Amino acid sequence: MSKEQEAYSYIKKADEKQNPGFMSKLFSSQESRLEESLDYLEKAANIFKMLKKWEEAGKTWERCANIQKQLRNEPASFYLEASHCFSFVDTEISLKSKLNAIASYVDGGRFQLAGKIQKEVAETFKNQLDYMKAAEAFKQAADYFSMESMNCRSYQQSCLIEYADLMCCQDNNPKCYPECSNVFF
To answer: Which of 91, 101, 148, 168 sits CB 3.0–4.6 Å from 112 for a disulfide?
Structure first.
């Protein structure tokens, strides 16, 4: 059996765990079936990743994230894995996965992690020369960092500087963004 076939067999086993027969439902809890399904999907995703089957890997990581949500656990790490895999084939889908990870971190009150990922999103927009979206994303990252401890102040300031820089370049007026004035002046 090839590695790719092995990955698909893990996916089949995961599906069987999620859609059990009558007897399986009697002898195992839904939570344990979901956990077993998650284990199979993680194995499949790692095989796809190893084989550089990026789209299949990304889709499988997203399925892992959905199971994590059903288990009422934080799915952000699975969304980030999916984002990484999708980055090789489709930047828009990769971005959506990152935004799902950010939403998960925000829901869990983990604002510093949300800020770091949001900053990555901003840098992606900046590299794509979409300066307005980049500025908005840097501003949002700064907002997330502001919700954390003083240790995040330098992250917040660096995002505000990026935001102000991008906005001032658009308007050619450095004093038009008062929320950044404490960083510059």
So the answer is: 148
CA dist 170 and 164 (Å) reads: 10
Q: What angle do CA 169, 150, 165 make, to 5 degrees?
A: 5
CA distances, 144 to each of 39, 103, 114, 137 (Å): 32, 11, 7, 11
Half-sphere exposure of 36 (CA within 13 A, CB side): 16
Q: What percentage of the chain's residues is helix, strand, coil (to nearest 5)? A: 80, 0, 20
**pLDDT per residue as tens digits for the range 31-62:** 888 999 999 999 999 999 999 999 999 999 99
Q: Which fold has domain 1-108?
A: 1.25.40
Rounded CA separation 24/146 (Å): 49
Token reading at 63? 């399925």
> For the whole model, what pTM was predicted?
0.85
- Among the listed residues 3, 5, 29, the one whose alpha carbon sits nearest the alpha carbon of residue 17: 29
Six-digit token string for 20: 């059990």
Pairwise CA distance, residues 101 & 13, whole Å: 26
